[in-house]
Amino acid sequence: MILNMGPQHPSTHGVLRVLLEIDGESVVRLMPDIGYLHTGIEKTCEAKFYQQVVPLTDRIDYLCPLTNNLCYVLAVEKLLGLEIPPKAQWLRVLLNELTRINSHLVWLGTHALDIGAMTVFLYCFREREEVLKIFEMVSGQRMMTSYFRVGGIALEPPLGFFDRVRDFAGYFPEKVDEYENLLTGNPIWLMRTKGVAYISAEDALGLGATGPTLRASGVDIDLRRDMPYSSYEKFQFKVPISTEGDVFARYMCRVQELRESIAIVRQALDGMPEGPIKADAPHVVLPDREKMKTQMESLIYHFKIITEGFAVPAGEVYQAVESPRGEMGYYIVSDGTAKPYRVHMRSACFANLQTLPTMCEGRLLADVVAAIGSIDIVLGEIDR
Amino acid sequence: MPLVPAITDVKLLKGHPAVARLSGWNAAAIEGVKFDRDEMTISLDRNSIREACALLKEDPACPFNFLSDITCVDWYPAEPRFEVVYHLLSIPKKERVRLKVRLNSASPAVESLTSVWPGANYFEREVFDLFGVRFTGHPYLRRILMPEDWEGHPLRKDYPVEGYR
């Protein structure tokens, strides 16, 4: 029998359509069908100035806008050869780890909800709300933050920002214990996740999986540690690995990542360097409002950047960061003008989704929902 | 890091594991190399991409065992028009390399990598969908993001940003 699941289905986390060929209760063949959210962001980027692309990168993935912002600006900065001041780099790390917490909380909540644990969902969204409030405080937006700029970050964080983050970092580990109390030893949870949707390290590597989906199968790679960017090399953290390769292993990897992320946030708060938040590159970075009102030079630069953008030397770069879902990469080709010639986003979910047939075929139909939840897909990122 | 001029001399870049391996295998297949902004790019002959990737994947010294990405750049109206770009990652050695093949605009086609990495499947379908580049030997070369009955390939440079009205 052929069964159609989605595109409107509560546990597909967006508009994913899955075609299932089933024999009784077991899945014979599974085929994901994507493209329902395709908005042509890559094409749109080619018609915008470099600085106008930043808000588009938010809209790829509503759960980790700042990770996408970071990846894009790092790529453009690499093209320009810009040096970013340490404070901006540390703030980027701080906000990226909060983004990871935000994303993992939504994943944990909805994944547990799919499998039938409603309470965890409400608990996770309680803490996520606080993270979103922190984002609103710093960028003015809860979700579409667009806070990073080519050459630094948009504004100094407001007064009280660091205290609020410190507060959050103080009580958050207890909350993780709370989630774990509800799930990790829970017999129903264990039965629904242990040994379910298994994938071997070899298969996961061959299919292009990254992030917790790959690490849960025993491949030890985390771009933050192995190919550091934005001064991640100055932070101490562990990379959670598991060798089980099932839904439970992916759950454990992500829950431990929550704890590691909060440790990175604490280190960033304690060691936050002083200094400027924007690079010294007047042709790229917008001048301060104050200077614009008093200095002719700044006014001219501001006018020129806004009306003509800034030219980027010809070349190409591929910059990858460790997003909550895996390797998020931006491949940007410049032809020397103020608009990118080509922007390609290597989406982690797009590749991770390819593991779904391997995880589900030959196994039970009821486990498909658990498998989809466990690879943590965001359809906006897949379809772009 | 301030920009330094790109290095394009094969002899100077022999130290890079991918260049060393490929020039040891078939120097004629290498059309050009470029080391720019700390990234290595190797342009290959279009007929040798699958073999080159299989070779790099199994390289004992520095196995490029992970296919990060496949995409394409359209250089319309220049010829060869399409540039298919592959990003490989060596997980044990933390090294990246970018491979390129150039294709003419008349029925662009290149060998599929799905036999080397099954994960090339979606990436190649995406390039086929949005650029119209065919991958020979691909098991299921169908549109992936656009509707099945869509006409044209949206990421080509001669396709208007607003679409055809």
Instruction: Please state the second-level CATH architecture of chain A.
Output: Orthogonal Bundle
Using only CA atoms, what is the Rg of chain A?
Answer: 21 Å
CATH fold node name of chain B: Beta Polymerase, domain 2
Q: How are strands sequenced across the largest beta sheet of chain A?
A: 1-2-3
Please give the share of residues in helix of chain B: 10-25%
Total domain count of chain B: 1
Protein architecture, described:
Chain A contains 17 helices and eight strands. By secondary structure, chain A is mostly helical. Chain A has a three-stranded antiparallel sheet with strand order 1-2-3. Chain A is globular, with a radius of gyration of 21 Å. The two termini of chain A are 32 Å apart. Helices cover 19% and strands 28% of the residues of chain B. A five-stranded mixed sheet of chain B has the order 1-2-5-4-3. The A-B interface holds A 34-35, 38, 40, 42-44, 46-47, 78-81, 83, 205-209, 219, 221, 226-227, 313, 315-318, 320, 327, 329, 331, 333, 341-342, 344, 346, 350-351, 353-354, 383-384 and B 1-3, 6, 36-39, 41, 65-69, 71, 73-74, 85, 87, 91, 94, 96, 98, 117-123, 126, 130, 143-147, 154-155, 159, 161.
Summarize the structure.
With 384 residues, chain A is mainly alpha-helical.
Secondary structure elements and pairings:
The complex is a heterodimer of chains A (384) and B (165).
Chain A: E1 2-5, E2 17-23, E3 26-33, H1 41-45, H2 54-58, H3 65-80, H4 86-115, H5 118-139, E4 148-149, E5 152-153, H6 161-183, H7 187-193, H8 201-206, H9 212-215, H10 223-226, H11 247-270, H12 289-294, H13 296-308, E6 315-323, E7 326-334, E8 342-346, H14 348-352, H15 356-360, H16 367-374, H17 379-383
Helix pairs in contact in A: 3-4, 4-5, 4-11, 4-16, 5-6, 6-11
Chain B: H1 17-26, E1 30-36, E2 39-44, H2 49-57, E3 66-74, E4 82-90, E5 95-103, E6 109-111, H3 120-131, E7 134-136
Parallel strand pairs in B: 2-5, 6-7
Antiparallel strand pairs in B: 1-2, 3-4, 4-5
